[in-house]
Amino acid sequence: MSTEIRTFHIPDGEAEPAQAELSAFLRSVEVERIDTAYADGAWRVLVLYQDLRRKEESLQIEAAIAAALNGWRERVAARDRVERHKVLADDLIPEIARYAPTTEHELSVLVGSRDVDVGPHGAEIVGVVRSTLEDLID
């Protein structure tokens, strides 16, 4: 999720409406930083923020991908008669869910820095991610 920027202008003469607008906005976002400056009879307020609705959407998408990966991992582990973490390590599931790789190359870059080999299941993992994203769009 990316940081967004919004600027507010609060004039000395009519501060109340502008302050009310700023207050309402601040209640609807996750603020990362606020900078202020006074010039020419007005305050300028610069707000760096993340939209809470987008953050909630991202969390829901991550949860859906993680659930799908866990279900897939259970099925593969039962089929191959191995422990779940042998199919896909527990700590990789949230990371894969967060970045949602849709190609084997993206997946290899993501897990490659951790010295993990998902080669035998790479295509299946990205297939689970893709199908989950498609289901969420439909």
Span between termini:
22 Å
Oligomer type: single chain
Q: Can you give the mean pLDDT?
A: 89
Specify the number of helices.
Answer: 6
Helix content: 55-70%
**Category from helices, strands and their pairing:** alpha+beta
Largest sheet: 3 strands, antiparallel
Strand content: 15-25%
Report the C-alpha radius of gyration, rounded: 22 Å
Order of helices and strands: EHEEHHHHH
Low-confidence stretches: none
Order of strands across the main sheet: 1-3-2
Extended strand count: 3
Bulk shape: elongated
Can you describe this structure in just a few lines?
With 138 residues, the chain is of the alpha+beta class.
Structure overview:
With 138 residues, the protein is an alpha+beta fold. The protein has six helices and three strands. The chain has helices at 15-27, 52-80, 84-87, 92-99, 104-112, 122-137, and strands spanning 4-11, 29-39, 42-51. It has a three-stranded antiparallel sheet with strand order 1-3-2. Helix 2 crosses helix 4 and helix 2 (52-80) packs across helix 6. The longest helix is centred in the middle third of the chain and has 29 residues, at 52-80. The mean pLDDT is 89.
